[in-house]
Design a protein that fits this description.
Shape: elongated
Number of strands: 0
Distance between the termini: 66 Å
Mean pLDDT: 86
Structural class: mainly alpha
Order of helices and strands: HHHHHHHHHHHHHHHHHH
Strand content: under 5%
C-alpha cells in the first residue's frame, strides 16, 4: 500500500470520527448545524482522488474538478462556528460568508466545461507553466487558496480577541481556553500559504511539481478536517457577551457602572457565586439583572481589575475563613474553589495579601 493510499485512509478515518462526534454530541454543540454541514460536505474534497483510486475517472469524468468550490463552503462553516463559540452575538450577516463560495463556483466554470480527455489529463498530469494558456486553472485554485487563507485568518482573529478578553468574562480561564482550536487555525493559514506558493512556482514554471493539484487538494482536506475535529472537542463554552467597542468607548455612565457593581456584589453574596467553579460574567450579570458589558467595565474602570480578579477576592476571603476555622486541607479547599493546586492557592494568598493589605470584604458576608 502506497503512502498516498495510507494518507487517504487516515483522513477517511478522521472524517468518520468527526461524523460520529457530531452525531453523538449534536445537541450539546452551539455550532452543531454549521459543523454538521461542513462535515457532510468534506468527502467531496476527495472526489478527484477517489476517482483515480477506483478507476472510474472515465465513466464519471463529469465529476472531475466539479467540487472546487466546496473548500470555500467548509471554510465558511468553520469561521461561523468559531464566531458562534467566541462571540455571544449571533452573526446577522452569516449568509454573506458564503458569497466567496458562489464566486468560486463561477471561477471554476472554465474547468468544468473542459473536454473529457482534457479533464482526465489534468487529473493525472496537471499543467505546468504556460500562465496565459492555463490561467483559468491556476486562477480557480489560487482563488480557493486565498479564500481559505482569509477565513483562517478571520478565525484566528476571533480566537485572539476571545482569549484576550477571557479574564474579563470568566473566572476559571483554563476551563474555557481553546488553544488547540486557535493553533489549528494557524495550521490552516500555513496550508493556504503553501498552496499559494506551490501555485506560484508551478504557474511560472519555476519548479516542476508533477502532481501539484494532488498536493494542494490533500493539504486543504487535511487542514480543514483538523480544524473540524478540534472544534468538536467536548468542553464548556463561554462566548464573549460584549465587544471591544463597548469596553473601549465606555458605553455606560459612571453612575450606572457603580450601580452595576453594587448589584453584582449583592448577587455574589446572595447566590454564593464565588463558590461556583466555571463562573461566567454572563451568569452573574443575569443574576444581578445588569448588562455583562457594564459589569466588565465597572471592574476595569472602578476597581482597576478584571472580572477574574474581582471574583478571586471573594474566593480568597472565603478560603481564608475555611482554613482558619476548620481543619480542612489546603488541597481540598483549592480544589473546591477551582484553584489548580495547593501551591497555586498559596501563591494567590501571598499576592492577595500584598495587594489588598487591610482591605477585605466584610467577614459576615462571606460564608
Amino acid at each position: 500500500m502506497s503512502l498516498y493510499q495510507i494518507t487517504i485512509i487516515v483522513m477517511l478515518v478522521g472524517w468518520f470520527v468527526a461524523l460520529i462526534l457530531i452525531w453523538v454530541r449534536f445537541d450539546s454543540y452551539p455550532h452543531g448545524k454549521l459543523m454538521l454541514t461542513g462535515i457532510l460536505l468534506w468527502p467531496l474534497l476527495m472526489i478527484d482522488e477517489w476517482l483515480k483510486l477506483s478507476g472510474y475517472f472515465t465513466a464519471l469524468s463529469f465529476l472531475i474538478g466539479l467540487f472546487q468550490f466546496v473548500p470555500a463552503i467548509i471554510a465558511a462553516t468553520l469561521v461561523l462556528s468559531v464566531r458562534r463559540l467566541t462571540v455571544e452575538k449571533v452573526a446577522a450577516n452569516h449568509l454573506l460568508f458564503f458569497l466567496p463560495a458562489v464566486i468560486m463556483l463561477v471561477a471554476q466554470i472554465p474547468v468544468m466545461i473542459l473536454p473529457t480527455q482534457d479533464k482526465i489529463s489534468m487529473l493525472f498530469a496537471p499543467p505546468i507553466g504556460d500562465l496565459l494558456g492555463n490561467w483559468p486553472i491556476y486562477a480557480a485554485h489560487l482563488l480557493s487558496a486565498f479564500i481559505i487563507l482569509g477565513y483562517a485568518v478571520h478565525s484566528a482573529e476571533y480566537f485572539g480577541s476571545y482569549h484576550y478578553h477571557l479574564s474579563d468574562q470568566v473566572v476559571d480561564v483554563d476551563i474555557y481556553q481553546m488553544k488547540f482550536a486557535a493553533n489549528a487555525c494557524w495550521v490552516l493559514i500555513v496550508v493556504a500559504f503553501i498552496d499559494i506558493a506551490i501555485l506560484t512556482v508551478v504557474a511560472f514554471d519555476l519548479l516542476p511539481i508533477g502532481q501539484w493539484n494532488l498536493l494542494c487538494s490533500m493539504l486543504n482536506a487535511a487542514g480543514l478536517l483538523l480544524l473540524q475535529l478540534v472544534l468538536l472537542e467536548k468542553r464548556r463554552y463561554s462566548p464573549t457577551p460584549f465587544s471591544d467597542h463597548q469596553l473601549s468607548h465606555k458605553a455606560f455612565t459612571d453612575d450606572y457602572l457603580r450601580h452595576a457593581l453594587k448589584q453584582a456584589e449583592v448577587a455574589i453574596i446572595r447566590n454564593k457565586a464565588y463558590k461556583r467553579k466555571g463562573l461566567r460574567i454572563r451568569q452573574l450579570a443575569d443574576a444581578a439583572e445588569i448588562e455583562p458589558a457594564a459589569l466588565a467595565m465597572a471592574t476595569r474602570f472602578i476597581l482597576k481589575r478584571n472580572f477574574r480578579a474581582f471574583i478571586y477576592h471573594y474566593r480568597l476571603e472565603y478560603a481564608k475563613k475555611i482554613l482558619m476555622r476548620t481543619d480542612q486541607k489546603v488541597t481540598t479547599v483549592a480544589k473546591r474553589l477551582g484553584f489548580n493546586s495547593e501551591k497555586y492557592l498559596s501563591e494567590m494568598f501571598v499576592k492577595y495579601i500584598s495587594v489588598m493589605g487591610s482591605k477585605s470584604t466584610d467577614d459576615k458576608d462571606i460564608r
